[in-house]
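The authors assume throughout that readers already know how a fold can be written as discrete tokens. What matters is that the chain and its backbone geometry are given together, residue for residue. A single example would do more here than another paragraph of explanation. For illustration, here is how one protein appears when written out as sequence plus structure tokens.
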Amino acid sequence: MKKSLLPLVFPGILALFVWLPLVFLISGSLMGSEELTENLAPVLGSAAGQVQWTLLPRYPTLRPYVELLLDSPEFFVMFWNSVKITALTLLGQLAVGAPAAWGFAWFRFPGKKLLLTLYIVLMLMPFQVTMVSSYLVLNGLSLLDTHWAVILPGVFSTFPVFIMTRFFQGIPKGVLESAALDGAGHLRIFFTMGLPLGAPGVMSAMVLSFLECWNLIEQPMTFLTTPSLWPLSLYLPNIGPGQAGLALAASVATLVPAVLVFLWGQKDLERGIIAASVKE
């Protein structure tokens, strides 16, 4: 084996282990009900032993996808709920987070470092810590069991602000000063120079936020009680154990938008992760 190939062996093995579950998921979604029942018999409690799984289905079929797309109207209801929640959350984060990040990056005001530190602390807190307080606030605003109960807390998330602040701080100061000398105001500098030059950071924040919003489970489960308002992430746990093919097909359908968005913004996402890891 050539020495130049040695550094690729270990990452290749890790990549194989990462991709295997996805391969099994896709192959399982193409299996018939009898083959799935046979393979998952120990899990379903109909037989003892271990689960057996093949890399490729013996008799490939699209029946699970037909059942999902033609006989499961609730799938489309929850799919569009996910689209609505995710789209409005991202638009809100862009409208609120980008100006806030610009202010943190280029304006001086009392308590700036303390407020930025508070943002970082809130970013590190899991949902379980703020769940009760969020519930009480949303209940006081009469927003429980509405999509706004999930959208508004996401709009004011601190993580996109943190990512975009790092990128805005990387814009050369001389460029902004020259624009100010030419008579450009703060808003004009922000829209004509800040957003274009900080576009990779904004896109990185939006990609990460999409992946988070698309896969939300705890927030909708806590704040939404009407099943017709649930997003797609709550559709999968409610599929019966006897519908393994439907569950696998729904998992693939749910995964496709996230994969496409990730591939589309992969370069910006990598730059965002690097920027977030750099200490001031």
In short: The longest helix spans residues 73-106.
